[in-house]
Amino acid sequence: MIYHSTRNSALSVSSAEAIAQGISADGGLFVPESVPELTAADFEALKGLSYAERAARLFALYLTDFTEDELRECTHNAYETGSFETPNVQELATLADGTMLLELWHGPTCAFKDMALQILPHFLTRAVKKTGIDREVVILTATSGDTGKAALAGFQDVPGTKIMVFYPEDGVSSMQKRQMQTQEGENVRVCAVRGNFDDCQNGVKAIFTDPEMQASLDENGLQFSSANSINWGRLVPQIVYYVSAYVTMLEKGITDEEQGFAVTVPTGNFGNILAAWYAKQMGVPIRHLVCASNINNVLTDFINTGVYDRNRAFHATVSPSMDILISSNLERLLYHMTGNDDAQIREWFGALKQTGRYEVPVELMHRIQAEFSAAYYDDAATKATIGAVFAENGYLSDTHTAVGIAAARDFTAKSAEKLPMLVASTANPYKFGAAVLEAIGGTVGADDEYAVLDALRKRSGMAIPKALAELKNKEVRFTDSVHREDMPEYVRVRLGIE
Ligand SMILES: *Cc1c(COP(=O)(O)O)cnc(C)c1O
Fold first, then answer.
1. Contact 154, 165 (CB under 8 A)
2. Is 411 exposed, middle or buried (0-12, 13-18, 19+ CB in 10 A)?
3. 81, 88, 268, 331: least buried by Cβ within 10 Å?
4. What is the C-alpha radius of gyration for the chain, rounded to an integer number of angstroms?
5. Where would I find the H helices in 10-50?
6. Relative to the CA of 273, which ligand 1 atom is closest?
């Protein structure tokens, strides 16, 4: 399988190169030249297999310069060595109204990012060896809260790597901040940015594509890569869980090839929902995709009007991991849907950078709407959904998942077909404890996040994840904070390449 840049179709790289580089030097994202298709027999053959085994077989279709043994080793290390608290890795829960929740947060940092970030370091270290570049890899990551911690956990003390994470100083939950500030490991570094997630992401992208920075890295035997969902190595493990969820639904007789199902994804950077779209292209019978947002509703507007416009107020919400106005992975969808029109992508994403806006033709908008619908919910609606789901089912959902449940219910209510509905459940509710506690009628005991955990446990009976409970006793190691403009200097100083 060959990969092209969304901004240069003539550029071809191997899967190992795509993963090792993270982002193309022209600013584009790497995409597969074609999407492998699965037949009914292929899905049948995945029944009864462990998650790790399913993943290894699916990876083999995309990561063609890795051997089967290497892929098995990667999936075993990521999914079968105890870092996930359930042997199935992902779990399927069903609410009384039939809505299914694909729980993707049983990993070490309690959010769905672990599904990909527990395996990315294994891919990346092998990819670097394969590309013959004998350099230390520096992972540079912008985070809206969950990617940062999951990447730190994945790359902690991995030989041949260093990792630096930038997060918006006031844009993450207190539990998310605590998780990052207490990260252990000799090769890790965490820094707050006085700005929002888009500032962090733009700052990181600018560092990646700065020729002077490149030259300094070269001289020092270093190479950047990304753990954000701009890296293909992040997306491909996410495709796996949608395929695997479908196989599990087949096993349980919940749906079949004929009927299919709909998927709702609470969305920020458009990575997780794009993975579902790839699964659909592979042959998973996903009849419709619902893109759920909080009031940072730039994607809702885009899907409904064909205009992407980030020139709007940025809102801090109770679902901070979706407080994003630049959804990077949309670039991949548009590249595929325009028939690999790299010139068009350069124009739109050039305009996005210059003016913050681009507009797609009506014909394309209609094709997008045939596959995707979109809705957004404010904090009050999000909390009301958490409250209602808890009252009806005794089930606790986090703030992001609740945005998805609200969108899924509204979609099902309006559609004539009544398809089985699968909602991506993206985080453990304890990660956003204060908002969740308030939503189920508890009183938020000021700023003590551990008191919140206890209160939530008393009210819900759900066990506190060990990884969060033990943060209390961990030392805070990282309190650095910089302005957006000072990020390049910070990176130079911390890497010792002044
Ligand atoms: C990252 C994240 C999202 C958004 O996922 P994207 O791939 O950026 O669309 C949603 N919910 C949670 C809990 C997250 O951590």
1. no
2. buried
3. 81
4. 21
5. 15-21, 40-46
6. 9
Q: Which atom of ligand 1 is nearest to the CA of 113?
A: 15
Half-sphere exposure of 452 (CA within 13 A, CB side): 23
Give phi and psi for 396, each to the nearest 5.
-100, 125
Token reading at 302: 């885009």
Q: What gap in Å lies between CA 324 and CA 248, rounded to an integer?
A: 32
Which domain covers residue 481, as residue numbers?
1-498
pTM of the prediction? 0.95
Count the domains in the chain: 1
| Residue 81 one-letter amino acid | T
Cβ partners under 8 Å of residue 166, min gap 6: 140, 141, 142, 143, 148, 191, 192, 193, 200, 203, 204, 487
CATH number at 327 reads 3.40.50.1100
Q: Which of 47, 63, 40, 34 is nearest to 284 (CA)?
A: 40
Give the Å distance between the CA of 424 and the centre of ligand 1: 10
pLDDT in tens, 57-73: 999 999 999 999 999 99
Tell me the per-residue pLDDT of 319-334, one tens digit each, with 9 for 90 and over: 999 999 999 999 999 9
